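seq:
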Amino acid sequence: MRPLPRHFELHIPTKTILKVLAWLVLVMVVVKLWPELVYLSLSLLLAIALAPLVNRMGRAGLSRSLSVSLIALTLLLACGLLIAFVLPPLFQQGGEVAANFPAFRERAQQHLPQNLVVKHLVTQLLLLPTKPEVAHQLNKPLVWGQMALSGVSTTCVVLIIALYFVLDGRRLYAWLLAYVPRRHRDKMAQTVPEVSEVVFGYVRGQIITSLLFAVFTAVVLSLLKVPAAMPLALLAAICDIIPVVGIVVATAPAILLALTVSPAAAASVACLYVGYHLLEAYVMVPRIYGKSMRISTLG
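struct:
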């Protein structure tokens, strides 16, 4: 005679169910508000980076509102200089590359080495913009205009929120500190200024290294008469922020466009990019970040 099957009952406490539901709601909120949370995080990071500068200006006798106003004017001036002197050649050179890309591709293919693997790989990269799905996206000026407008408006919003955080940061900091348990408040009060100094040092160092890499790239590519020197310099400045992969992303298009000049120009670009990256990693970065990030210098 077969034994009767046993019945198992699973009892889940109501408290556990409520916790799971609360976490699900929180995850849904984070997913829905993810872009806004990213913008808010960037504003907060920028405000933390600017706070030591405002404090130093305050110790020099300037009021907090005047300090924030001067920083805002400096940022506006920097944006104006960027628009006046960088964007025109950037769009001009980018347009020339786009208009003359078939001719650039033919010249680059003529200078390719006889190695079949390298030649096939570079040819596929050069043919990438002509593929239907890529060409379809590139031939949407309205979409690119919307993306540019969205990027500018997002940058403005992030800067405005960051400046507000800096201006009203003390009250916001006191309000957040009130939610920290009493036994941890003293430690938190000591940690936050130190973290702010570290973030300020990192942001300052990253701006310096990105600008130096952009200037180096613009000078090298201009001397070698490589097309689109300004767009490639901007790409180098952006990629300098990205560890490891950034140098690859910045170097590959520069080498491809240098091939339109000559194989010697392409080899020079490759060697100079790699040499500068090693110089930056082992000499410049320890000296620029060393004091604030506690990075030891080499040599």
